[in-house]
Amino acid sequence: MSPKHPNVLFLTVDALRPDRMSLLGYDRPTTPTLDKMAENALVCEEAVSPAAFTHICLPAMMTSSRPLSYGGYDTGPLRRPPTVFEAFHAAGYETTAYCTTHWVGRFQGYDQGIDNERMMYGLNTLPGLAMALYRSTLSAWHRGEVSDEEVVHKGNEILGWLFKSIEIYAAERMAMDAADRRDFSHARFVRDGYDFAKVADLASRHRKEFERDPLAYLKRHFYYVPQAHQWIGQEWRSYRHPGKLFSHAFEMLTNKIIGMFDSRLARLRDHRYKRYVDGAELADRIIQSIETWDGEKPFFIWSHFFDTHVPYCAGPRKEWYRKTPDYLSELGYDPGIDVSTAINPRPQTETEWQTWSALYDAAVRFTDEQVGRIVDALERRGIAENTIVAITSDHGEELGEHGDISHHFRLYSHNVRIPAFLWRKGMKGQRIDSLANLIDFVPTLATLSEVPLADGWEGIPLTDPQIRKRDTAVLETLHGGNCLFDKRPIYMSVRTHDLNFMWKEYRDPEDSFSPDGLELYDYRKDPSEQENLYRQDHPALPEMNRLIAERLAEIPEISAERIVNSFGAVGEDAVRQIRSKPISA
Q1: If exposure means fewest CB atoms within 10 Å of the residue's CB, which of 83, 147, 308, 455 is most exposed?
Q2: Measuring CA to CA, how many Å separate 486 from each of 71, 133, 490, 556?
Q3: Taking the alpha carbons of 527, 530, 531, 537 in that order, is the dihedral positive or negative?
Q4: Are residues 284 and 419 in the same domain?
């Protein structure tokens, strides 16, 4: 192993808010592990994600490129610069991806550069992924805005891929059955107990039906826009091994009996298997990789923790809810609060909102604990001084600040601020307050590992003095769904060191929470962004409008007419400068 190349543990944490981390000033001790590690870490205090949902953020991060470039985010890393896996693989690393999310892996085009991939997500995530990439087109088709030819063309791309992916997934699950049951016995993707031979046969039948007459297939199956558990997911619901069907029926009966005496416990038992891979089991798998590493090549391991994603289930494995009070107590909360609030669709009362927030903090504390276990394994193996532990998030999270939960696409600070943390034992710690972007993270990781930056990466390493000169960050997104550039409004944001200007062409019909019009907040004075300072003559707006217009002009799918309609003369200048052609009348 070349001594100049350290091992790398690249850990992303879903929906991790920096303002809820004691590492970054939160008044509850949510991240004691990271707090201690900070003396040997590079910590960025002002990092943001380019958007606010996973399937737009991860390809941007992994390829250090802006989300709406290269035709948009629908095709993941395809057509984009090389991924971080490709860069590290080319530098001699053995690369491993523990794919707890379907947004990274072979089905999204990440097969290049990954030596070892472990799929650790459930079957229903595949149609869910497909619908995320097809939903906007289907909705527009139902409204008469997209033709039969257009919806079939998109269907050939998405459904053709989906049916083949399900067959591959089923084969992988059957091949990995023993290892899955050994390593992830409490994970839903194992506990579901599907008969994957039947699932593969069902996918094959759907594929053949679609290929015979795509439009007839769409009219039969997509007379509505299905959720992941509907359509094909509804058909395979009964395709489970008999023993699993029996045990599921027994569990339901047991919970009904318990519910007669303790309804909260019954509900918690009904959700005792997390819908994502448990953080403790994921940490166990990473630790096993550290312990069994042969030392021949430096390792690069990536995975994604989900415990800070709704529902917030702080605690290990199937009895997580019995451990949650311990984490709450460590944070100074009442350990007797109603943990079953975690599995509600959303809070309904002020007390439930407070509980929801506390449970999020507990999930942060639980995740921090898993990071500590992994670092302890590095110490035991004697490789902590030659291993970089890099931690960031894909986006932030809303805890009711603007009437919503989770992270539904809007560019408020709570949804886009992220931590950026890179540690190596013995490294001199430093904190920077530059306006960093998620696309800077992979170039930073490569620079610290002495791996060449890939051609096309747009981010700047956080160690580069140039980063300190950056005084704005431009964010870009659509309101979820897929990239129908010509039929959907663009949402953007310009951030300075104190202001957040949120611009949208118009409110997306599926956006039920955003106000009409534009928004401007001073997030230093107003961290929750409750007081909208927007007025047309605000002195910060001319420069912010120019930045947005210029970025839109860089996206070829956005017509010059749209830019000029939105920004007038500023838009004309942007199009002329960026596209080097006059504006047509």
Answers
A1: 455
A2: 12, 16, 10, 11
A3: positive
A4: yes
Query: Model's pTM, two decimal places?
Result: 0.94
The token duo for 323 is 């451990």
**Would residue 479 count as lying in a domain?**
yes
What per-residue confidence (pLDDT) applies to 583?
53
DSSP H or E segment with residue 347: none
Looking at the structure of the chain, the number of domains it has is 4
Sorting pLDDT into bands at 50, 70 and 90, what band is 1? very low
Q: Token pair of 386, please?
A: 């030659």
Domain annotation covers residue 386: yes
Kindly give the pairing relationship between strand 41-48 and strand 430-432: parallel
Does the residue 400 lie in any domain? yes
CA-based nearest residue to 566, from 550, 582, 580: 550
Are residue 102 and residue 152 in the same domain, yes or no?
Answer: no
What is the distance in angstroms between the CA of the first residue and the CA of the last residue of the chain? 63
Cα separation, 482 vs 231, in Å, equals 19
What are 580's two structure tokens? 């080097």
Backbone angles phi, psi at 351, to 5 degrees: -60, -40
Cis-peptide, bond into residue 311, ω within 30° of zero: yes
Q: In this structure, are 136 and 147 located in the same domain?
A: yes
Q: What are phi and psi of 496, to 5 degrees?
A: -110, -165
DSSP per residue, 250-300: HHHHHHHHHHTT-HHHHHHHHT-S-SS--HHHHHHHHHHHHHH--SSS-EE
470-510 tens-digit pLDDT? 999 999 999 988 899 999 999 999 999 999 999 999 999 88
Burial pattern 360-386, b for ≥16 Cβ within 10 A else e, equals bbbbbbbbbbbbbebbebbeebebbeb
Write out the residue range of the structural domain in which residue 366 sits: 1-120+276-459
Question: Any idea what DSSP says for residue 240?
Answer: B
- Write out the H or E segment, with its range, that includes residue 53: none
Domain final position from 434, 459, 484: 459
Instruction: Judge whether 558 and 550 are in contact, CB under 8 Å.
Output: no
Q: Which residue has the tokens 């989300």?
A: 67
Question: Quick count: other Cβ atoms within 10 Å of Cβ 84?
Answer: 27
525, pLDDT greater than 60: yes
36: tokens are: 């201690």
Pairing of strands 473-477, 491-495: antiparallel
Question: Is 408 found in the same domain as 384?
Answer: yes
State the Cα–Cα distance between residues 571 and 553, nearest whole angstrom.
Answer: 8
Q: Are residues 429 and 298 in the same domain?
A: yes
| 143 in the same domain as 113 | no
Tabulate helix, strand, coil % of the chain (nearest 5): 45, 15, 40
Q: Which amino acid is at 354?
A: Q
551 and 520 inside one domain: yes
